[in-house]
UniProtKB/TrEMBL annotation, chain A:
InterPro entries for the chain: Sda1, SDA1_C, SDA1_MD, SDA1_N
Protein name per UniProt: Protein SDA1
Stretches assigned to the SDA1 C-terminal domain: 702-747
GO biological process, one term: ribosomal large subunit biogenesis
Function: Required for 60S pre-ribosomal subunits export to the cytoplasm.
Organism lineage: Eukaryota, Fungi, Dikarya, Ascomycota, Pezizomycotina
Similarity-based family: Belongs to the SDA1 family.
Domain SDA1 N-terminal: 69-437
Domain SDA1 middle as annotated: residue spans: 551-679
GO cellular component, one term: nucleolus
From TrEMBL, chain B:
GO terms (BP aspect): rRNA processing
Subunit structure comment from the entry: Component of the RIX1 complex.
Name of the protein: Pre-rRNA-processing protein
GO cellular component, one term: rixosome complex
Localization (cell): Nucleus
Residue ranges of every copy of the Pre-rRNA-processing protein Ipi1 N-terminal domain listed in the record: 134-235
Upper taxonomic lineage: Eukaryota, Fungi, Dikarya, Ascomycota, Pezizomycotina
Organism encoding this protein: Glarea lozoyensis (strain ATCC 20868 / MF5171)
PANTHER family reported for this sequence: REGULATOR OF MICROTUBULE DYNAMICS PROTEIN (PTHR16056), TESTIS-EXPRESSED PROTEIN 10 (PTHR16056:SF2)
């Protein structure tokens, strides 16, 4: 019999990590050892369940170690450990409050590990963890659970969206919010939803629905969370996306260059391969169609009902317990909804009246909300008293300049959205403030003036109208707009396409040596040919892209020819095109023609099917036009009006914009110092600017200039030259000076020969 | 350079002799450290301020807590030794300083204690406890005993067997009838002796019992025959009908009333525990098996094949293990003699 050292064997017995390693390598041979450990785990569990608070973790191996061990090898013995996950879940759900924190974390970690080994599924895990997250009094456990839940949701949505899991979790969150509206537990639903929204894992209407319920809760925290989500959630999402796309830039060329220089080994090779792979992946991702991410506000079902409920529950309700700040954000959300979706909540406007005094705290926010809640379908009767009140309370000679400018800005913002809210006497009165000494007031009043030159010049006094407006009124191109009047919509840039087509045709004719204006028949022929080309092109493309078998055999050209051949139609369009194409010589006439072009809705789209080639060209023209606009070429009134309106449709109006140039609150000393310091860099000690610049250059590893070298040169070395200088003869001096001139011409001693 | 007068003075200062004056305190040295401190209260750790000596019961409680929660193993052992002498030197009819209901839960975790002297001392102490009190706490005791039987360390396993022996001595019926007492304990035996089979495994025979089972060396090497013997005791307690279970003159003594004992108030506590009216529902393992027939059925269904196979291999070994196996096989034969296989 061989003597063995028992002590060593004992040690091996107690060595769980070692056993774990062995089991993972060869599960079947170590079945017995595993069963022993599992039996030990079961008895420890029984002891624990009998008295959870008194069970101590003393002894050679603790309960948590056993749990860890079993969790790690449970995938090798699925039948034996079938009840293990359930055990952990029951321990956690029943005793999470009194468990030792270490053991608790170990159990949570083991459950997540089991999930990763796919012994339990995600919904199983989340259904176990989520109730504890909501119920536990321990902060550390809450953070841990929150993090685990989020990471699990992210991983299970990483490859493809796991709709079923998302749906169950969303339902659980929704139920959490709706089951008890007064409790603060809903905050977890808000937190989880917001985080997942930020990371673009949940982008559907259901997530928005959860937040909608949160905003309509009774608990202040939950309300705040929900409302803030609608006000800032999308911006957060965009920022995160920008961030993540920024840091991915890899310079492959640089890496390759480095690999050429540095030591060549496997690791360097692999680095390059990885980088190339990543760049390719990024490129592929870039070429993918952009996922349509609607903002939360656009995904709302029934925004009207939501806005009304928010308003009546939190703002118009006397029993609402919200403080001013919370009320303000709710008001912001309501007004944003009203402005964005053009809702009608008439009581909202009368609600504003009592807050519109300069003494009201945060009045600028109220003003901003009011302006935001205004849109073209608000009855002017509802707004007129508000504008009047703002004018009376804020804008007067006696009031402070900041107050006056804030009032004027607010009025302008309201009137941008609903110009009819202004009466002409009031307008003329307000416009007079453009002569004010204060810059803020003056700018605000000028803004109002320029606005009304566009939207209602006839309300201004004659001398205030300006040249274009006066001429417009005279010619009749500027008309008074009525309440509810909408511009007839069309395809953006269609008139550009029409124009371009006419030009093209003319050019072709010129190439063929024909007179510029051809007959209709010829035009038609051209058209047909052109169209044919457009469709052919498209067919080729589609054939290449889809391989749907026998479908290709169908000759689609015939059908299309039947549907859009112009022969059986009277070519009324052509006549018009011709008039447009006749190119009047004089500048005046051309302008008039442009106006006509602009006013009438182009018939191109209604009489003809646009070919894919046409659509591509349309896109191109649109882009060009927008570039021109950005370059500041002159615009028509309609364009400018549209721009003004568009600017306000999607972005929120903030109190800062109302405050304008003169902030109501002067900046504090610290702010001013910070402002002055901005961009100056770190200044540790007092040094001259020169020295600082030098230090910066040194840090960057740049060389000194000749001047600096000369300044630093040892005094004794310069002495001989200085002494000699005194004794030079005139010729010597001349030679030196000449040499200097020549050197400077040549560009230094050696000169710039190579250049 | 230090040419200035001020610097010269500073240099000189280091070597000047401090002047001592009569009636004045000596100047403090340069490297003097102030070690004085102020405190609002003084805490004396070890000292008792009471003038009278501690009562023996409080002394007992103190040592009990020492034994159960002290960090040092010698202290635990000494405390246990004290408790043992205290209990053994007591007059026979005097009540115990503390009831068993308090003592037992505190000391049971020591079954899993890492030090062997503590465990042996614990066994000595436990033997002094009144047997009638132990029966009610058999379930709790078995929890720790089972944990000991499946423990990693071989010595703890061996000592846990002694505890089980003691339990079988003092409360035979309670051990086999308490919830989980039959099924779970048998399972622990199976894993301990290496007779257990994985529920999911195929026909994979494993010969590696190098560390846990019968081929262990040293102190644990003698464990296998002992395990067999204790298992035999356990099975005997559960399966074999005690000879005096039926009172000889039951029907005749009190003729008109038969089976009086059945209708009297039960003598044991929690007589309807097997109905499990208030606890959580139990599974097959944790069920109470009150009847002998039940136990036979469970044994037959789950363990008999494994046990008989184990016995046959052990008998082939002969020697001590073979003799113990013979005892075990006799117990199994006796216990299962009147068992008729019911198809369930």
């Amino acid at each position: 019999m061989v003597r063995k050292r028992v002590g060593a064997l004992e040690k091996v017995d107690a060595d769980l990590p070692n056993l774990q390693y062995k089991i993972r390598r060869d599960p079947r041979s170590y079945t017995e050892e595993f069963l022993n450990q599992y039996g030990q785990y079961q008895s420890q569990r029984d002891i624990f369940m009998a008295s959870p608070n008194t069970a101590s973790s003393s002894g050679i191996i603790s309960f948590s170690n056993l749990i860890d061990f079993v969790a790690h090898v449970s995938d090798c013995f699925p039948e034996d450990t079938a009840e293990f996950p359930e055990d952990l879940k029951t321990i956690l759900t029943l005793h999470h409050a009194e468990l030792e924190s270490e053991l608790r974390e170990k159990i949570v970690g083991s459950l997540v590990l089991l999930r990763r080994k796919e012994i339990i599924d995600s919904s199983n895990l989340l259904n176990a963890l989520f109730p504890i997250l909501v119920a536990t009094p321990s902060k550390t456990l809450r953070t841990l659970l929150f993090q685990k839940i989020l990471s699990d949701l992210r991983t299970s949505n990483a490859k493809s969206i796991n709709h079923r899991l998302n749906r169950t979790i969303q339902t659980a969150l929704f139920n959490l919010l709706t089951s008890d509206r007064t409790s603060s537990k809903g905050i977890w639903a808000v937190k989880i939803t917001r985080e997942l929204w930020k990371r673009q894992i949940w982008t559907d209407a259901k997530a928005v629905e959860i937040m909608k319920e949160a905003s309509l809760a009774d608990n202040e925290k939950v309300i705040g969370g929900g409302v803030r989500f609608f006000l800032g959630g999308d911006k957060e999402r965009e920022e995160l996306e920008d961030e993540s796309s920024d840091d991915e830039a890899i310079d492959v060329g640089k890496l390759k260059h480095q690999a050429g220089i540095n030591k060549k080994n496997k690791k360097a090779k692999r680095t390059i391969e990885d980088a190339v792979k990543k760049v390719k992946r990024n490129e592929k991702k870039k070429n993918q169609p952009h996922p349509l991410n609607f903002s939360a506000l656009h995904l709302l079902h029934d925004p009207q009902g939501f806005a009304e409920q928010l308003f009546s529950k939190h703002l118009h309700n006397g029993k609402s317990k919200l403080n001013l700040d919370q009320k303000l954000i709710v008001l912001q959300l309501v007004s944003r909804l009203v402005g964005l979706h053009k809702l009608t909540v008439i009581t909202l406007y009368s609600y504003f009246i009592k807050y519109l005094t300069p003494r009201q705290p945060q009045v600028t926010s109220f003003l901003a909300s009011l302006a935001q809640a205004t849109h073209s379908l608000v009855p002017p009767d509802a707004l007129e008293p508000l504008v009047q009140k703002i004018a009376n309370e804020f804008v007067s000679e006696a009031s402070a300049s900041e107050v006056a400018s804030a009032g004027l800005n607010a009025i302008r913002e309201i009137c941008v959205r609903q110009p009819l809210a202004m009466s002409d006497t009031l307008l003329q009165d307000l416009v007079m403030y453009r002569k004010s000494k204060d810059k803020g007031t003056m700018m605000a009043a000028k803004g109002l003036l320029s606005l009304y030159r566009e939207v209602g010049a006839d309300m201004l006094k004659k001398r205030d109208r300006g040249k274009t407006a006066t001429m417009g009124i005279k010619s009749g191109s500027i008309k008074e707009r009525r309440f509810g009047e909408e511009d007839a919509g069309g395809i953006e840039g269609l008139e550009l396409l029409e124009q371009w087509k006419a030009d093209e045709r003319k050019r072709k004719r010129a190439e063929r040596g024909l007179p510029e204006l051809g007959t209709d028949e010829e035009d038609n022929e051209d058209d047909e040919a052109e169209e044919q080309a457009g469709w052919d092109n498209w067919d080729a493309e589609s054939d290449a892209s889809d391989d749907s078998g026998g479908w290709i055999a169908v000759d689609s050209d015939d059908e299309i020819n039947i549907s859009d051949s112009d022969d059986d139609q009277p070519s009324s369009k052509k006549v018009k095109l011709d008039t447009a194409a006749k190119q009047p010589e004089t500048e005046e006439e051309k302008e008039k023609a442009d106006a006509v072009l602009e006013n009438k809705i182009s018939k191109l789209a209604t009489t003809k099917i646009l070919t894919p080639a046409d659509l591509a060209k349309l896109q191109e023209l649109r882009l060009e036009a927008s570039m021109n606009k950005a370059m500041g070429k002159n615009k028509t009134q309609a364009q400018r009006l549209k721009e003004i309106a568009d600017r306000h449709a999607d972005d929120a109006l903030t109190a800062d914009q109302i405050e304008g140039f003169s902030k109501l609150r002067k900046s504090t000393k610290e702010e001013m110092i910070a402002l002055a310091r901005e961009g100056k860099g770190e200044r540790g000690e007092h040094k001259s600017t020169q020295a600082l610049r030098r230090a910066k250059k040194d840090a960057e590893g740049k060389s000194t200039t000749n001047k600096e070298k000369a300044r630093k040169k040892n005094f004794l070395m310069t002495l001989g030259k200085a002494k000699y200088k005194q004794k030079r003869s005139l010729t010597q001096t001349r030679r030196v000076l000449k040499g200097h001139i020549e050197r400077s011409k040549r560009g230094g001693k050696r000169g710039n020969i190579g250049m | 350079m230090g040419s200035s007068a001020r610097k010269k003075k500073e240099k000189k200062k280091d070597f000047q002799k401090p002047k001592l004056r009569v009636g004045k305190t000596k100047a403090k040295a340069d490297n003097f450290t102030d070690t004085s401190f102020k405190s609002k209260s003084i805490v004396v750790n070890q000292q008792s301020l009471s003038t009278s000596a501690k009562s023996s019961s409080s002394q007992f409680a103190h040592y009990l807590s020492l034994a159960s929660s002290s960090k040092s193993d010698t202290q635990r052992r000494d405390a246990l030794a004290y408790l043992t002498t205290q209990l053994s030197s007591q007059p026979v009819n005097e009540p115990m300083p503390l009831p068993t209901a308090i003592i037992l839960p505190k000391l049971l975790p020591l079954i899993l204690d890492g030090t062997s002297s503590v465990r042996s001392q614990l066994l000595k102490f436990l033997r002094l406890l009144p047997p009638s009190d132990v029966g009610d706490r058999a379930e709790q005791s078995l929890l720790y005993t089972r944990a000991g039987m499946t423990h990693l360390a071989a010595e703890i396993r061996v000592d846990a067997l002694s505890i089980l022996e003691w339990l079988l001595e003092v409360a035979k019926d309670d051990v086999v009838t308490c919830p989980g007492g039959w099924m779970k304990t048998l399972k622990s035996f199976m894993t301990m002796m290496g007779w257990a089979t994985s529920s999911g495994s195929t026909k994979w025979t494993s010969a590696s019992k190098s560390s846990f089972g019968k081929f262990a060396f040293g102190k644990a090497g003698k464990a296998f025959p002992r395990q067999l013997l204790v298992l035999a005791q356990f099975l005997k307690a559960g399966l074999v009908e005690p000879e005096d279970s039926l009172p000889t003159s039951e029907g005749t003594a009190t003729f008109p009333i038969c089976q009086v004992g059945m209708h009297m108030i039960p003598t044991r506590s929690n007589a309807f525990a097997h109905l499990n009216l208030f606890g959580t529902s139990r599974d097959e393992d944790g069920e109470m098996y009150i009847d002998r027939e039940d136990r036979q059925r469970v044994f037959h269904k789950n363990f008999r094949a494994a046990v008989e196979e184990g016995i046959s291999t052990a008998q082939k070994e002969a020697g001590e293990a073979g003799r113990a196996a013979a005892v075990l096989s006799k117990v199994v034969r006796d216990g299962m003699a009147d068992y008729t296989d019911i198809d369930d």
